[in-house]
Write a structure and sequence with these properties.
Length: 313
């Protein structure tokens, strides 16, 4: 599966692993690779490993490189804030990688990159307007307007996890409180469940949380009929559905794409969120379709290739 001439390389930087894809000039992904991120080794070590992996993937040379990274990325591609690779702020990882590879490079936010991939060949293919909501450890998001990902004045547009919801007082990673992410992300669900379990240490929820301290334990306890777990999940689903209703009312997208680990977790959770959405959204928009992300884990690296392509197109 060789690429004639130099290919486009996309790099999806995750907290535990880094995934790469090589795209040919017809837009086909022709090779992939993955390596352990090992963020503790520092950014220079990561750049070295990523450059080596890119060279292996594209022995004929790299035309351009794109990086997708969790966190806030400013319009010039510099990572402004990030949670999963602490201390790598103030750097344009893609541009630095491009220096090593002798080609242009830049960085974009992971949810924006994922939406680019879903617009190009996934759940939002052919759409001009779309909203992506990624519910995992945190809550990310992205907006497409007129067929392109919209960035806003600070590169911040689409960061739905930091939208304020009434009733929350838990501190957010950004320093404020009451943000959607603190209540309805996997981490938010876990925190709510731990609070509940403290009051009932002999309950099914507490037992599942001891076995696996994560949001998955809450879903498992709910499946076993535990009322505390069900209430925690219902509250999170209602918040998500209501928040998406607000966003859809403002944006009027053709489709809402649901991504992330919690999005893949449980049908009943999303049916509940959908009911909350339909009950809250303006009636004109109640049929706005929700679709699961189609490209799965591979979306980040594919979208990063499209970021690279935008540099040389
Ligand atoms: Zn926040």
């Amino acid at each position: 599966m060789a690429v004639r001439g130099r290919g486009l390389v996309g790099v999806d930087l995750g907290g535990t692993k880094t995934a790469l894809a090589l795209m040919d000039d017809r837009g086909e992904v022709v090779a992939r690779d993955v390596f352990a991120t090992q963020a503790a080794d520092g950014v220079e070590a990561w750049l070295e490993r990523a450059a080596a992996a890119a060279r292996r993937l594209a022995p004929a040379g790299v035309r351009a490189v794109g990086v997708g990274a969790a966190g806030q990325v400013d319009p010039s591609g510099v990572l402004v804030a990030t949670a999963n690779v602490g201390g790598w702020r103030g750097i344009n990882l893609g541009a630095r990688l491009g220096e090593r590879l002798g080609c242009p490079g830049t960085t974009d936010n992971d949810a924006k990159v994922e939406l680019m991939a879903e617009l190009d060949r996934g759940a939002a293919r052919g759409c001009r307007t779309a909203l992506l909501v990624a519910v995992g450890t945190g809550i990310g998001g992205a907006i497409a307007l007129d067929g392109r990902v919209y960035r806003g004045a600070h590169g911040f547009a689409g960061e739905v996890g930091h939208a304020f919801v009434a009733g929350g007082d838990r501190p957010c990673g950004c320093g404020r409180a009451g943000h959607l992410e603190t209540l309805a992300s996997g981490t938010g669900i876990l925190h709510s469940a731990l609070e509940r379990a403290r009051g009932r240490p002999d309950g099914v929820l507490a037992e599942e949380l001891r076995r696996e301290p994560g949001a998955r334990a809450v879903f498992a306890a709910a499946r076993r009929g535990d009322a505390d777990a069900q209430e925690v999940l219902d509250a999170a689903a209602d918040l998500l559905g209501g928040s998406i209703a607000g966003l859809v009312t403002v944006l009027d997208p053709e489709v809402v794409v649901l991504a992330g680990g919690v999005a893949a977790a449980d049908d009943a959770f999303w049916r509940r969120a959908r009911r909350a959405f339909e009950g809250a959204v303006h009636p004109t928009l109640e049929r706005t379709p929700w679709r699961p992300a189609a490209l799965g884990e591979g979306a980040g690296a594919i979208g990063a290739c499209l970021v690279a392509r935008s540099l040389v197109a």
